[in-house]
Amino acid sequence: MFSSIARHPFRFVTLGGFLSVGLLVWALPPQGGANAAGKTKTAMATPAEPKLTYPPTKTVDQVDEYHGEKVKDPYRWLESLDSEETRQWVEAQNKVTFSYLEKIPGRDKLKQRLTELWNFEKYSAPFREGNRYFYSYNSGLQNQSVLYTLTSLDAQPQLLLDPNTLAKDGTVALAGMSVTHDGNLMAYGLSAAGSDWQEWRVRDVQTGKDLPDVIKWIKFSGAAWTRDNKGFFYGRFDEPKNTGKSLEDVNFFQKLYYHRLGTPQAQDTLVYEDKQHKEWQFAPQVSDDGKYLIVTVAKGTDDKYRILYQELDKPGAKFVELINNFDAEYTFIDNDGPVFFFKTDLKAPKAKIIAIDVRKPTERKELIPESQDTLQHVSVVNGSFVATYLHDATTSVKVFDLNGKFVRDVQLPGLGTSMGFAGRRAYKETYYAFTSYNMPATIYRLDLTSYESKVWKQPQLKFNPQDFETKQVFFTSKDGTKVPMFLTAKKGIKQDGLNPTYLYGYGGFNIPILPSFSVADLVWMEHGGLIAYVNLRGGGEYGEEWHRAGTKLRKQNVFDDFIASAEWLIKNKYTSSSKLSIAGGSNGGLLVGASITQRPDLFAAAIPSVGVMDMLRFHKFTIGWEWIDDYGSSDNPEEYKALRAYSPYHNIKPGTAYPATMVTTADHDDRVVPGHSFKFAAALQAAQKGNAPVIIRIDVRAGHGAGKPTSKRIDEAADRLAFLGKNLGIDFSK
Asked: In what order do the strands lie in the sheet with 231-236?
C-alpha cells in the first residue's frame, strides 16, 4: 500500500507512506546569500576581480548530424565518467572551485549559522500498520533520519533502522520501505552514495533483526506485500553486463518479480514482463483486502498509465488488462470487492475520482467530478475518501463518502503545504505534516470522527517565524498567461530595487513547487534577502493542461515564464539585475542554463544544479529516455528544432558576458549523469567574456540529491550562500 511508483526522473521515493518534510532538501531551492543584517544596501557589486584561471580543457572534433544539420560537440570526452582524463579534469576543476570558495570572507560564519539553525528536531508524519506506528526522526544534525516504531503514540519509541551506522560518511540512505499489513515485517531499500540503484532487505520489526533475504538491482520500484506476509512483489532490471558502468548505462526492460521470504533472489518468480516494449515499467500494489495485485504500467515520466490486475486468491489466475492504452492517468486508490476506485485525469485535466467494476470494465462511474482546484492525492481512511487539492499552489483537504458525496472540508493550520493523510479503511485517524516558507514541518493527528487536528510533534526553533512573511503575487508571462509566485522576506521589506533576491523555479514533469521550509532560505532572509518561488508552466500546480503547456514544442513557455518573473521583480522594484540570482535543480538546472543563455543580461549570478544541459543526447544515458515524454527527442525532426533552440550546452555563445555561475553536480548522479554539467561548465568557461567567475562544484560520493547526508547539505548550502554573496556585493564577514 505504501510503496511508490518512484519512476519519475526528478522525484524522490516516498518512504513507506510518510514524507520526510524538510529533509528532502534538494527538491527545495539550492539557496544563496545576502547582505548582512543592518548593512546599507547598494545597487553596485564589489569591484571587479581578475578573471579566474581555469584548468585547460581539451576539445575534440566530434560532429554529429541531426536531420541534415551538423552539430559540434567538442567536450564529448567528458561523458566518459570513468576515464582517467575525466577524473583528472574533475580534480583540477574542484581545486579551482574550492580555492575560490575558501577565500570568500564570511564563509565559515555562514557554515556556523547554518549548522546552528539546522540543529532542530525533525519528524515525519507517522503511518500505521496493524497495531504499530512508524515514523522517521532526526535529532538535528544526524546525517540520515532514523526510523522508529511505536505500539501506541505515547509508548516508548523503538529504534528500527539507523542508516547512520551503515557508512562512516553518512552516504548510505533509506530509499524506500514497505511494511506488512500486520506491522510485523518491513522490506526496505538502501541507496549508497546517492545512486538510484537500491538493495532491499527484510527486517523483523519486533526484534529489529534482518532476515537473510537480499534483493539487488532494484531501481524505481517499491515492494508490495501479499496479505499472508510470505513475500512481496517488486520491479527490477537485469544486472548490468558491465557493473563498472552501472551509473551511466541506459536502463531498459524492467521486470516484475515475486520474492518469497527465505529463498534466494535467483529463485524469485517472474510475474510479468513485456519483451516487446523495452521502455515499459511496472509498479505493483496489493489491494487492501489482499485479493488483487494491481500493476500500473508506465512507459516514461508522463502520467499516463495502463492498468493490469490479477486475482491473488485464485491460483493460476492470469493478468487482465483493465486499462489497455496510455490515454490518461489512472492511480489506483482502493476497492470495494470488484469495484476499483481510481484518480484519473481522463477528460478532466485537474483530475477526478471514478469507479470501475472489473466485471463491466468498459463502464466508468464518476464519483467525484473535476473541480476548479487540482486533485493531488486521495486515500481511503475511516471508510471515506480523503482528498488533497491544490488551490493556487497551497493545500486544501476535503472528505467525501465512498459514493462521492461531499462530507466536509478539513481545517488546516494555515496557508502552506500539508502532506501525508495515509491510512487504511478501518482506521479512524490519519497524520499529516504542515509546512510553509517560514515554518518547518509540524506533525498533526487528524481525528476522522471529530475532524479535529491536534499537534503531535512541533519543532523547537532558534528563530522567530513571525519575523518573516510570505505573500503570493501573480504576473503576466510573454503570451499573456497569468503565473503565480511566492515572495518571502523579513517583514517590512522595501521595494527600492536593492534587495538581494533568490529566484527559484522548476517547471516540469507535472511536479508542483509548493511552500516548504529551508534553513538556507532562512539565512538568506536573515541578511535582508528576498526569496521568490515561481510556479512555472510544466509543473503540476494547475493540472495536466498547465503541465502540457510547458512540454516538448511548448517548453520555451517555461523559460518565458521564468524570465517574465525576473522582469516583474525588477519592474516592481523588489530587486535589480545586479542583485538578482537564480537557481534550480535537475529539470530546474535546465531552466537556469536556458535562462542565462537566453538572457545573460538579466541576472547577476546563477546556480544550475544537477541540470539536464545537453538536450540532444539526454536520452542516451541511464533513465534519460523516460524524459522524452516531457522534452521530446532529437530523433524527431520537429522536436529536434525545438530542443536545439534552447539546449543550454548548444546555445553558449563565445565572447558573451554571462552571470557569475557555479554549476553543481555529483560524481554518483545516475539520474542526470554529471557529463551534462561537465560539458556545460567547460563550454561556459571557454566562452565567458569579462571577469565573472564560472566554476563547477563536483560533490564526491553523492548523487542526484536523495539521501545526501546533512553534513554535505550544510557544506553545499554554505558554498552557495558564499558564492552568491560575493557576486552580489555582500560581505558576510561583517
From this structure: 223-225, 231-236, 255-260, 269-272
Strands 365-368 and 374-381: unpaired
Q: Name residue 70's beta-bridge partners.
A: 65
With CA atoms as reference, report the closest residue to 495 among 564, 567, 572.
Answer: 572
Instruction: Measure the CA–CA gap between 540 and 393, rounded to whole angstroms.
Output: 9
- Please tell me the distance from the alpha carbon of residue 586 to that of residue 176, in angstroms, as a whole number: 21
Locate 205 and state its grid cell.
Answer: 520489526
Query: What pLDDT does 278 receive?
Result: 83
Digit-coded pLDDT (tens) for 569-581: 999 999 999 999 9
Cα angle 322-269-265, degrees, rounded to a multiple of 5: 135
Helix 710-727 to helix 107-118 angle, to the nearest 10 degrees? Answer: 140
Q: How far is CA 37 from CA 148, 426, 439, 580, in A?
A: 40, 53, 20, 18
19 vs 350: CA distance, rounded Å: 23
- pLDDT for the residue numbered 82: 83
Residues listed for the chain: 734
Neighbours of 136 (CB within 10 A): 25
Beta bridge partners of 419: 433
Question: Can you tell me the distance from the alpha carbon of 697 to that of 96, in angstroms, rounded to the nearest whole number?
Answer: 9
Q: Is residue 569, in this structure, part of any structural domain at all?
A: yes
The residue assigned the cell 538572457 is: 599
Of 244, 271, 232, nearest to 255 (Cα)? 271
| Residues annotated catalytic, as ranges | 586, 704
Task: Report d(CA 588, CA 592) in Å as an integer.
Answer: 6
pTM for the full model? 0.87
CA distance 650 to 597: 9
For the chain, the C-alpha Rg in angstroms (whole number) is 25
CA 454 to chain centre: 29
Query: Element (H or E) spanning 95, and its range?
Result: helix 84-102
Percent helix, strand, coil in the chain, to 5, is 20, 30, 45
Domain span at residue 533? Answer: 25-116+463-727
Q: Exposure string (b/e) for 19-35, b if CB count within 10 Å is 16 or more?
A: bbbbbbbbbbbbbbbbb
Residue 313: inside a domain? no
Query: Residue 445 and residue 426: Cα distance in Å, rounded?
Result: 16
Cβ-based neighbours of 577, under 8 Å, separated by 6 or more: 570, 601, 602, 603, 604
Contact 234, 214 (CB under 8 A): no
C-alpha torsion angle, residues 318, 319, 320, 321 (rounded to 10): -150
Beta-carbon contacts of residue 83 (< 8 Å; ≥ 6 apart): 77
What's the burial of 561, exposed, middle or buried (CB within 10 Å: 0-12/13-18/19+)? buried
Cα 132 vs. chain centroid, distance in angstroms? 29
Q: Is residue 72 part of a domain?
A: yes
DSSP states of 125-164: PPEEETTEEEEEEE-SS-SS-EEEEESSTTSPPEEEE-GG
The DSSP call for residue 12 is P
CATH number of residue 99's parent domain: 3.40.50.1820
Task: Decide if 449 is inside a domain.
Answer: no
The grid coordinates of residue 615 equal 538536450
Structural domain count of the chain: 1
Who's near 155: CB < 8 A, 6+ residues apart? none
Q: Which residues contact 265 (CB under 8 A, 6 or more apart)?
A: 213, 214, 215, 216, 259
Q: Cell for 303?
A: 502520467
Please identify every stretch of the chain with a pLDDT value under 70, giving residue numbers as ranges: 1-48, 193-194, 242-252, 667-671, 701-707
Separation of CA 369 from chain center: 29
How do residues 277-334 score in pLDDT, each as one tens digit?
A: 888 889 999 999 999 999 999 987 778 999 999 999 998 899 999 999 999 999 999 9
How many CB atoms are closer than 10 A to CB 399? 19
